[in-house]
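Hello forum,

I keep getting stuck at the same step: I have a sequence, I want structure tokens, and every attempt I make locally crashes halfway through. Rather than fight my setup again tonight, could one of you with a working pipeline run this one for me? It's a single chain of 231 residues.
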Amino acid sequence: MPFGSIESVARAIVRCERCPRLRAYCRAIAAHKVARFRQQDYWGRPVPGFGDPAARLLVVGLAPAAHGGNRTGRVFTGDSSGDWLYEALYRFGFASQPASVDRNDGLRLIGCYVSAAARCAPPANRPLPIELDRCRPYLEAELRLLDRIRVVVTLGAIAHRTYLTAGGWWRRLPARDRPPFKHGSRAGLPDGTWLLASYHPSRQNTNTGRLTRSMWHAVFADARRLVDQER
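Reply #2:
Ran it on my machine without issues. Output:
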């Protein structure tokens, strides 16, 4: 896709209608809502990436949450996963504040950009392979335009593989050289980019102790060190 700016990618994402199942689901959620957000207007559209166009750190998640990004219109905003992410980004100097509740709350990312494998909330948090394929060109465009990225943190196995595919590494690297998904792993890619992997901060992982705060903070402490050493 021929995009000239991050802003043009964002505009195209918001207008996207490529996946009928996802668009129908997001519109239905926005129409029916949940009781605690009954008085709010839901975004209900695909959710673009968010952050600093001069970012050195890229975070790739899975998809907007039905009552998080699909409600607020900003990735990782208004749900518990976002609480974990933006607290860590703030702790390590990548965000101006530790919480994100809506897209007009004043949050600013510093040297960081947050994206996702899928831009629409999927039923049961499971986008279909064809839906990921349709969405991947937006991440490919972001990777071309965010040309200062030196560190990438992938949140979950789907985001990990989607990043490797969008960046061309899945095709170019022999299978034995492709960085596997493993929480806390660090891999150097041939272009000098560092790839860090983490479990996704979903309730399924955080409430069960599969992902603890210390495990989570260790990933972003490593990202901070790597970004700083690249200056």
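Strands lie at 50-51, 57-61, 112-116, 151-155, 186-188, 194-198. If your local run keeps crashing, start a new thread with the error log.
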